[in-house]
Design brief:
seven-stranded mixed beta sheet; alpha/beta; single chain
Length: about 325
């Protein structure tokens, strides 16, 4: 007797327990360009700050990933490197912290002068609007102001394909004890007041013909946890490039060695380490992973990654 595929799968689950069946259909993109617009290091043009932002251009779509810390930084740096943000309608926020959300109100106010739909959709992870007990969640006031200006906040509790080949991870399960957060914050939940481990932390994943490209704001969920989330919930394709902040600035030598080993297992061969990654951490990973200097760089304002040329970094960051 010939059994249908779904019947075989059901029998396998009943006999052997749950299987990994979350592999999503791949839709590799044709073009991808990521330009850093906020971080500490600057190469000639723009200003540096403790913050992060990048413009993601993929197959005709544009996404502003985080909005930096100070109100004017991203606008100023975009102008400095010759980028017009007025046609960007989607914003991705990795988490609630001020150094990733500080420019949002000003950007909306200024860009809508040219395009009423500028930054009209803001993509966030579940938990981002939770009340922080011993620190202010400044995004709450920003949310109210933007919603009164017809901006929509879209909340994700799991992975979602935003555009073909462009994935939002949604919040990430903490499998490994990476603890990529301060440890001092508290947050109100339905179960009471608990440690604030930034539960809303999420990243962008772009599917390319060469594998996945990961863009991270701070990686508070843990870089390795994030990569395992991608394999478990999106696809087991290799992740060959990682870009952004990874909160390894205080990581010990032992932690960096552990991280480097996992990165190699996932197929990582290119790194732009910005913001909270840490300069020492970036160069430790470079050595531990035996990467060429052109493929492991300190992120700087104006850096570009694209599929054709790989990493184009400023001279200071090389």
């Amino acid at each position: 007797m010939i059994l249908k595929k779904h019947t075989i799968l059901l029998l396998a689950i009943l006999l052997n327990g749950p299987l990994l069946i979350c592999q999503q259909e791949r839709n590799p993109v044709s073009t991808l360009k990521v330009t850093t617009l906020s971080t500490m290091v600057v190469n000639g043009k723009g200003v540096g700050e403790w913050g992060y932002s990048a413009l993601v251009e993929v197959d005709g779509n544009k996404i502003l990933f985080d909005t930096g810390a100070r109100p004017e930084t991203v606008l100023q740096n975009a102008n400095a490197v010759g980028i017009d943000l007025s046609d960007v309608e989607d914003v991705f926020l990795s988490h609630n912290h001020w150094d990733h959300t500080g420019g949002l109100l000003t950007l909306r106010k200024e860009l809508k002068k040219s395009n009423p739909n500028a930054l009209k959709r803001v993509h966030v992870g579940a938990g981002i609007f939770s009340k922080r007990v011993n620190s202010e969640n400044t995004l709450l006031a920003t949310k109210a102001a933007l919603e009164s200006d017809n901006v929509e906040f879209i909340v994700y509790s799991e992975q979602k394909e935003l555009f073909p080949g462009v994935w939002i991870t949604g919040p990430i399960k903490r499998i490994h004890h990476e603890r990529n957060w301060s440890g001092s914050g508290k947050i109100e939940t339905a179960e009471g007041i608990v440690e604030d481990n930034i539960p809303e932390d999420q990243s962008l994943v772009i599917d390319t013909p060469d594998g996945f490209v990961l863009i991270s704001g701070c990686g508070h969920a843990g870089l390795v946890n994030t990569l395992e989330h991608i394999h478990a919930n999106i696809n087991k394709e290799k992740v060959f490039t990682i870009i952004g902040g990874f909160h390894l600035i205080t990581a010990t030598d032992e932690q960096l060695q552990w991280t480097a080993g996992h990165l190699k297992d996932f197929g990582v061969s290119k790194i732009i380490g910005s913001h909270c990654t840490g300069i020492n951490a970036l160069y430790s990973l470079k050595g531990l992973m035996s990467l060429d200097r052109k493929d492991a760089v300190v992120g700087s304002v104006g850096d570009i990654f694209d599929l054709e040329n790989g990493i184009k970094a400023g001279i200071i960051a090389r």
